[in-house]
Design brief:
The protein is mostly beta strands and 208 residues long. 0% of the residues lie in helices and 32% in strands.
């Protein structure tokens, strides 16, 4: 049997809800601060920071201990004003002062399920067996692609006796048979965000 090839990670792609309901494309629009100079790509995990704006989450293997590692949702596009005063709707936020009035489109449903590529620490595509279903996994941030606008994030291949840590940011809910490279070698999995900000009892500090 011939299998489709997954050549590179592309971030987290919303596909449905963990209860099986189809993904309807719902997003929340949240601002990106004009002073924020980090690129955010389609499929990147993002966090809400002080001031109510969106930034790329620094999450890798820890989603609980600091605001830099919080997970709020996943970016699926942006709108901003460029240096020529034109309104741009784009796959990614370029992260520079020329992009003002920026709005992030974010999938923030805590029950959303996302398709994502399994990678090694060097971002090379890898695979896992079905025993990953139910475990928690770490995120490899990778490098976003400015041509496609897609994230370079993937989930890291786990090692034995890893997967039950509550601080790991995503939970595997299924494997993806369509892109398997063998009977029990899956290059993509379906995950949900663990402990997203929207469900955390502790919020951000308020400053008027």
């Amino acid at each position: 049997m011939a299998y489709p090839t997954v050549s590179a990670p592309y971030g987290l792609q919303p596909i449905n809800s963990v209860d099986g309901k189809p993904y309807a494309g719902a997003t929340r629009q949240l601002p990106i601060a004009s002073t924020y100079n980090t690129a955010i790509f389609y499929g990147d995990i993002v966090a809400v920071v002080d001031g109510g704006t969106i930034e790329k989450s620094g999450v890798t293997n820890d989603s609980t201990t600091s605001a830099a590692n919080y997970t709020y949702g996943v970016l699926t596009g942006v709108q901003y004003t460029n240096a020529q005063g034109q309104t741009v709707q784009a796959q990614y936020y370029p992260g520079n002062a020329a992009a003002t009035n920026a709005i992030a489109y974010v999938v923030d449903d805590p029950m959303a399920a996302f398709r994502v590529v399994v990678v090694e620490a060097n971002s090379a595509v890898s695979s896992v067996n079905r025993s990953v279903v139910g475990i928690n996994m770490a995120i490899d941030q990778g490098t976003g692609n400015t041509t496609t606008g897609n994230s370079g994030a993937g989930v890291l291949v786990p090692t034995n006796n890893q997967g039950n840590a509550a601080t790991l940011p995503v939970r595997v809910v299924e494997v993806v048979p369509a892109t398997a490279t063998g009977a029990n070698a899956f290059t993509e999995v379906v995950v949900k965000l663990n402990n997203p900000q929207i469900l955390r009892a502790t919020g951000l500090d308020y400053a008027a």
